[in-house]
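Bug #77: duplicate submission created two jobs. Keeping one. Sequence:
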Amino acid sequence: MKTYLDYERKRNTSSLAVLQGRVTSIKVTGPLTVRIELGSSDPNLTFFFAQAFGAGYIGSPKAVAAPKTLDQGTAGAGPYML
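Kept job's structure:
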C-alpha cells in the first residue's frame, strides 16, 4: 500500500495526489498496517480513500515498478480495510 500511495503522491499530474494533499508521511507499522500522518486535519480523507474517488486504490509494488503497465490490466495488491 505504501509503495503505491507514495507513487501517486509524487506524480505531478495525478488527481490522486491532490486527494492526498494533506498527507505528510506514510509509514509501514506492521505486515498489514500503515500509518498515514497528516499536516493538518482532513475530515474527508476516509471519503477520498473510498473506491468512488480512488485515492485509496492500491497497486502492487510490481506494477508501480513498471508504471506503463498500470493502464493495461489489473494491478491490485489485494483487499484492505480502513
